[in-house]
Specification:
The chain is mainly beta. It folds into 8 domains: about 80 residues, Sandwich (Immunoglobulin-like); about 90 residues, Immunoglobulin-like; about 60 residues, no CATH class; about 80 residues, Immunoglobulin-like, CATH 2.60.40; about 110 residues, Immunoglobulin-like (Sandwich); about 90 residues, Type 1 dockerin domain, CATH 1.10.1330; about 150 residues, Immunoglobulin-like (Sandwich); about 80 residues, Macroglobulin (MG2) domain (Immunoglobulin-like). Helix content is about 5%, strand content about 50%. The strands form 15 sheets. Strands 40, 42, 43, 44, 46, 47, 48 and 49 form an 8-stranded antiparallel sheet that branches. Strand 47 and strand 48 form a beta hairpin. It is globular and about 75 Å long. About 45% of the residues are buried.
């Protein structure tokens, strides 16, 4: 069982700041070389004992002492935090394993979260029958604290059921007729306010309906355990794995596969329940890159047509190491200036990202680090007018925080309802009761008691460049007077902007999913009806991008939970500052839209597209979530019922609670996000979700091009964002799909065939709904459901339409047959209901 401690997660997050050499808003995280450790204040930490002749501290702590202890062949690190110190600290050591001409040297890095107390919360598994009433779950049976007893803090996520929390007792009731896995994410705290979160993993079992044989295909990563869920407690292991062990998690029907240390490959094992029930499990164990131990990746920014000099060793753990080799970037000229110093001249007018790698060796230990160079002016996005808000008598500060400093703002259109002041260069100013620091700060102060709509224009220029950009801003002054002597003007919580990047979008869902279960100080005054910055005390935790975790608590109740998605939906696409042009690094993973239905399509037809990520030869490693946006605006055709479908069979969310959200805009755009909420990444490839839509009935009004019977229509998937478990965000390749439309009035009813019938989602979960749609102008008349013994279990008559929806409340996991009768013919389809 694997627990997720808020303390440990927090520490891993904060350490990314130590590794970044540029603005944390833009930097891309690399795998952390640190071992994250929580220790008690006024205690002494001793590392493992190394069979080494020498141990040397190469990075000393800031808030304590570190020294080598032991003797030759038995060296270890001793770290002692300063008296009564509480906070973050880190130590790096160099270990030499032998003397001689070819000594073996290794580096280790320790990140300490020094606490007054430590809370340990662990995932725990349960089994309950389907259709159970509220059942007590002793979720805290394995949880503990170094300081006294624990109590429940909150329930931040519940899937496939309901929770009743009575004092410190948790009761769970599954959805009616549901069988399969359910999750409850909870947080516990001790008397000192230290907290941790974990998951209750609940196997909801319908023992009356168990399929005899079923293969289970799952994946994991090197040194990562993964659960196997079985539809019964009586299953026993009948074939042992070769690359790991399988451990039963109590009498729950849940087993945990634990691969041996550092093994990769394909493993197989089997279960049996009585003579007739079998499960064959196939596990793919993927390799994962090991983090560097003395070199660190670099992220460099320079404006267009401006060269840049930098030292790649400035942030390395071992400095002044000879660089053995380096590659050359495209789109510019790179020269090595000695030591870690490089000079890069980008090609004329080039913008975008380029980069190179360098290799350094220490006594035969070689590592390679990347240098990513972003070339561009980081202009504010100006595809439209910015619509900002403030409240009556409250100044608005625009702090354009980008990793270049040689820019300026000029006022080209004055506001009418207030005063605007630009503070050139780096400056610290006082606004109200707050000190604000930044580069080229812009401060708008509304006239006393004025409300309404104001507007002004700024010109953004790079020093020495004539290529300036106009930014138009409309500012709404809300008729709200905040009852506070010190209203928030900087680092405010804008509800919905979880990652505090200036805009509310699906990337906020990805950040929210990672931090589900975190707790902090609640806000006193919460407003989820009006869009303005709200005061909040900083939490003692930061996100991977360096922003305070308080921004994830959108509703201000002191808990990061599923309910915080309300503000994301309510204020979706709202902005509160200028947004820089995107500078995410690209990942060349395969992204595909595969047509699940088949055309050509006509009015009333359903189109289903499978969203596929990664390939067998290039699987996606350590992925935590995806944010996707589909565009339908570049076609003369109209569509409705734009929907993204969360799939139970997705490799991305296997063995984890998940969060799914979608937003549709005027049948022109569909945005959605899918993320795990356990803080661990997944590895795999293939189908992650589906998108479906229906061709509008008014297709006859479309102007047809040429004499062709069909016309291709492009569906775009724009700039998909991948969020990895180490906090890094990458942009995946854009992709598209072409669907074939049938000319109106020509052969309006196609010859009937099986592929005109679509059943989705399939596989699905017990208790869910399944959609059935027939294309080609036909109608569904009758749907019958049979088991594999040929017994009819359910039927729906007199449908007489091209689509219907079946409720699966009476069916448990297994394989069933759907007999679908239409006015064109009868089709039989298999339906898989998964546990």
């Amino acid at each position: 069982m694997s627990g997720k401690s808020i303390l440990l997660v927090f520490f891993a997050l904060t350490l990314t700041l130590f590794l970044s050499v540029s603005k944390t808003t833009f930097a891309q995280s690399a795998p952390s070389p640190y071992d994250d450790l929580s220790i008690l204040s006024n205690s002494v930490f001793e590392s493992e004992v190394y069979d080494a002749v020498m141990l040397m501290v190469i990075k000393h702590p800031s808030n304590g002492t570190a020294r080598s202890k032991g003797s030759s062949g038995a060296r270890f690190l001793e770290y002692t935090p300063d008296s009564n110190f509480v906070g973050l600290d880190s130590v790096s050591i160099e270990v030499q394993l032998n003397w001689g001409a070819n000594p073996v040297i290794q580096w280790y890095h320790f990140a300490f979260d020094v606490k007054e107390s430590i809370v340990f919360a662990y995932d725990v598994e349960f089994a309950i029958p389907s259709n159970s009433d509220f059942t007590f779950l002793d979720v805290m049976m394995n949880d503990s604290s170094t300081h006294g007893d624990l109590s429940f803090s909150n329930i931040s996520l519940v899937s496939k059921g309901m929770v009743d929390l009575v004092a410190d007792s948790l009761f769970f009731k599954p959805l009616a007729d549901y069988s399969g896995v359910a999750y409850v994410t909870y947080s516990v705290c001790d008397s000192l306010g230290e907290c941790a979160s974990a998951n209750a993993v609940i196997n909801v079992i319908d023992s009356a309906n168990v399929v005899s044989d079923y293969d289970i295909h799952i994946s994991t990563m090197k040194n990562r355990n993964v659960r196997v869920l079985l539809p019964g407690e009586e299953f026993e292991l009948s074939l042992d794995p070769e690359l790991g062990v399988v451990v039963q998690q109590g009498s729950t029907g849940i087993w945990e596969y634990r691969p041996f240390q550092n093994v990769i490959g394909l493993d197989t094992f089997s279960f049996e329940m009585y003579p007739d029930y079998h499960r064959n499990v196939f596990v793919k164990i993927y390799d994962t890159p090991s983090p560097n131990t003395f070199l660190v990746d670099n992220f460099i920014y320079t404006p267009k047509n401006q060269d840049v000099s930098f030292d790649v060793q400035e942030n390395d753990f071992k400095k002044n190491v000879s660089i053995n080799s380096f590659t050359h970037p495209e789109n510019g000229v790179l020269s090595h200036q000695g030591s870690g110093n490089f000079h890069f001249v980008p090609d004329s007018n080039f913008t975008g990202s380029t980069g190179f790698s360098y290799t350094a060796c220490i006594l035969g230990n070689c590592e390679t680090a990347k240098v990513i160079i972003f070339v561009g002016d980081l202009n504010p996005q100006n595809s439209g007018t910015y619509e900002l808000t403030t409240t009556k008598n409250r100044p608005l500060v625009i702090n354009y925080d980008v990793p270049i400093s040689n820019f300026s703002f000029n006022l080209t259109q004055d506001p009418e309802l207030g005063e605007l002041v630009i503070y050139p260069g780096l400056d610290t100013i006082t606004v109200g009761c707050s000190e604000v620091s930044g580069n080229n700060l812009v401060v708008y102060t509304p006239d006393t008691d004025v409300i309404g709509l104001d507007e002004f224009e700024l010109e953004y220029c790079i020093d020495g460049s004539q290529d300036c950009h106009i930014v138009k801003i409309e500012l709404t002054i809300l008729d709200l007077l905040i009852d506070s002597s010190c209203v928030c003007v900087e680092n405010c919580v804008w509800p919905g902007d979880v990652n505090h990047d200036g805009v509310v979008d699906m990337r906020d869902v990805l950040s929210l999913g990672y931090y589900i279960g975190s707790v902090g100080e609640a806000r006193d005054d919460v407003d989820l009806e009006n869009w303005y910055g709200q005061s909040a005390t900083d939490w003692g935790q930061k996100q991977y991008n360096g922003q305070n975790l308080k921004h994830a608590d959108t509703d201000g109740d002191g808990i990061v939970q599923v309910q915080d998605t309300f503000a994301i939906s309510e204020f979706y696409n709202r902005v509160h500052t200028l947004l820089a042009e995107e500078s995410l690094q690209n990942k060349p993973y395969y992204v595909g839209l595969h047509e699940s239905t088949s055309g050509p399509y006509q009015a009333g037809d359903l189109v289903v597209l499978d969203v596929v990520i990664g390939t067998e030869n290039s699987p996606v490693i350590d992925l935590h979530g995806l944010a996707l946006s589909f565009s339908f605006s570049n076609t003369p055709f109209s569509f409705n019922s734009l929907t993204a479908n969360e799939l139970t069979s997705s490799w991305l969310t296997y063995d984890a609670p998940s969060l799914f959200m979608q937003k549709e805009f005027d049948n022109q755009q569909l945005d959605f996000a899918l993320t795990r909420t356990d803080g661990f990444g997944a590895a795999g490839f293939g189908l992650v979700t589906q998108v479906s839509f229906i061709v509008e009935d008014d297709i006859d009004g479309i102007r047809w091009v040429g004499e062709s019977e069909t016309q291709l229509v492009e569906i775009l998937l724009d700039a998909p964002i991948a969020y990895f478990a180490n906090g890094a965000e990458f942009q995946l390749p854009d992709t598209n799909a072409f669907i074939e439309m049938l000319r109106p009035g020509r052969n309006a009813q196609k010859d009937f065939s099986d592929d005109l019938i679509t059943v989705f989602p399939n596989p699905t979960l017990a208790g869910n709904e399944v959609n059935i749609h027939v294309n080609g102008g036909y109608s569904i008349e009758l749907v019958e459901i049979y088991d594999l013994q040929g017994r009819m279990l359910h039927n729906v008559e007199n449908i007489n339409g091209n689509s219907t929806r079946l409720h699966l409340d009476e069916l448990s996991s297994g394989i069933y047959l759907l007999r679908i009768s239409t006015d064109g013919g009868i089709v039989t389809r298999k339906l898989s209901i998964q546990h």
